Amino acid sequence: MGKYKILAVDDDFASRLLVKKVLERDQFEVTVCDSGEEALEKIKSVKFDLIISDIVMKGISGLELLKKIKQSDSELTVMLLTGNASIETAIDAMRLGAIDYLLKPINVEELQVRVKKAFERIDLESRLKNAERDLTYSATIATANHEINQPLTVIISATDMVKMELDKLNIKNHRLNNYLDLMNKSSQRIANLLRKLREINSPRIQEIPLGMKMIDIKDEEEFVIPHDRYILVIEDEENLRQIIQRMLESSDYKVILAETAYEGLELYRIDKQLIELVILDFNLPDADGLEVLENLQKLNPGVKVLLTSGFAVDESISKALNKGALDFIRKPFNRLEILDEVRKVYSYNPKEQQNNNHV
Predict the structure, then answer these.
(1) pTM above 0.85, yes or no
(2) Which domain holds residue 319?
(3) What is the spatial distance between Cα 180 and Cα 196, in angstroms, rounded to a whole number?
(4) Domain's final residue, options 90, 106, 122
């Protein structure tokens, strides 16, 4: 942060001038006033980091000022000064929330040390509070993502299945299709919002009307899918091949389908400059997934490959990941999972891919 802002309150001109000069030498920004009433007015318009106030003053005393400050802003730090020391006064000051208590006449070195320690404590408390806030935020968002994504996945998948059933029954209902598209788009908005919240490491709070607060979600550039680039899906199971195509096309991706490793390699060889990503079933009847990956890399060393399999990660899949496959999705996967993985691939720099395609 910039300079710390300090408000020095004292009805004795010499005392408040001394505080101002000493602390300004230490690069603090110091404002002075001669009464508790004036201090309360200044606090309304300026955000101070520390208030240093004399206890014995005409009008509002230092203890009364401390009490009023804590009522309006419990986090504002206050340090008190007095020429009439007593244990009772010190106890009252600390009980009301003062961070420290100094005696008059002011010892310059002691003032400097106490103020420095006060800000060290303020910084420490701020870091601890931020860490606790971030931890609470992360736990809340993780819980929300888990609890919301489960039914959201069902909604999105069910919407896709309804569309499939309508196609099977050859039902053409424009209004019904519009409703399904609206459900799908709204579900995607929820999924994108959850993703944005999940990616926030340190939440920023913004004020909104009626004294409420919200998390400030940074405006990101709208994700644009390259319209002239395709995803090649190599999958031998016909039903799964079709459902993956529907999942991707529902989010405006263009899809090329291949049933065998041979067919997939031929399609990639012909159209590698157009294909942004290959989704590869690792267990094909005519070739091992690792072999297919290596042949794709011979055609284009920068090829982007996303692996799928009904089996857990084994030695051969680990080897494929080490050889350059981007990621692995275990079957069964839902629509959100595969779209999230594909989105990550499209976030890579497409120019790098284009350059590699010319190798």
Answers:
(1) no
(2) 230-357
(3) 24
(4) 106
Instruction: Point out which residues pair with 308 in neighbouring strands.
Output: 281, 329
The residues pairing with 51 across neighbouring beta strands, listed in sequence order, are 7, 78
Q: Answer for the pair 213, 259: CB distance below 8 angstroms, yes or no.
A: no
Q: What tens digit of pLDDT does each residue of 111-156 get?
A: 999 999 999 988 888 888 888 888 888 888 888 887 887 788 888 8
Provide the token pair at 249: 């096309």
Residues 209 and 282 in one domain: no
Q: Domain tally for the chain?
A: 3
Phi, psi (degrees; rounded to nearest 5) at 80: -110, 150
